[in-house]
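hey so i finally got around to running the thing on that chain from the lab meeting. sorry it took forever, my laptop kept dying and i had to restart like 3 times. anyway pasting the input first so we r on the same page abt which one it is
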Amino acid sequence: MKASAAMRTALQRQWQEGGWLSWLLFPFSLLAAAAVAAKRLAYRAGWRRAERVGVPVVVVGNLYVGGTGKTPFIVAAAHALRERGHRPGIVSRGYGAAIGPVPRVGCGTLDPAVFGDEPALIARQAGVPVAVHPRRAEAARTLLHQHPDVDVILSDDGLQHLALARDVEIVVQDERGIGNGLLLPAGPLREPASRLRGVDAVVTNRSGGRDGTLPTPPAGVRAVDMDLVIDSVWRLADGERRPLPALPAARRIAAVAGIGNPARFFATLRRAGIRLDATVGLPDHYDYAHSPFAAIEADLILVTDKDAVKCPAPDDPRVWAVSVSAHLSDPTFFDWLETRLHGRTPA
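ok and heres what got predicted. didnt touch it at all, straight out
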């Protein structure tokens, strides 16, 4: 595990700063760029058609591969739209679950092995129906068939999934920005940075710190900062929930995160005043088939809510999950989003 973590750290450094490995992989990035351009051309020329599903669709995605904070933003967006009288539903690929040919639809407490960890977390926190399938248009149709009251769909990821027509595109980025600016595998980007000129809004997740250099948002693209604020902590063994100041006293505290950017979770904890004696960064969507907790010498272990939906730790009273919520720098952002959904010119 230590060797793989070191390899991930080295690759992330190359993706941020460049280096010999990045340049060695650069020809493959040119191939990726050509494939991306050909795909977009096919839709622009009408050779392939995006499917409309009958209700407005908001795609929340990213350019930087891995996690940037989309999940808490989607949960916040779902709550905000419900407060404004809408009935949102969520579609997602269901990464990590073997979905099969038929989309799966569920609400409330979902099995992450069946739906994927992020859809399971979104369903629990947002309280809206969720459909999962690699073909998101098919997921959306099935969702609307089973929940005909849904009047707006939020697509978890899917910025590059052009088969689903969308009315609003929102990119969530973090302090890493566009990294070295190169496409996979020489860099971290799924699409060229110029793609930002075509989206409607860019949300910058600042919870990992504000030291990164980020490109200026293109003219006409709405920009807003997002912070992830710790709401509470809860113990996996029995579900007991406490406010952060009431976290049990501990001599040694460790943090474990199987998300796209574990360092961001650790930074969020430190900003909240928690002293971390050890940190363990795991691969994104880590399935916890092998529990890392037994090997950790700590009196208290903190994990993300995303990890908690699949952690096999009910018998370890040391493990507590940290619940966060998204706070935006612009309090009118979701009013703007609703305006876009109604097809009016935004303020």
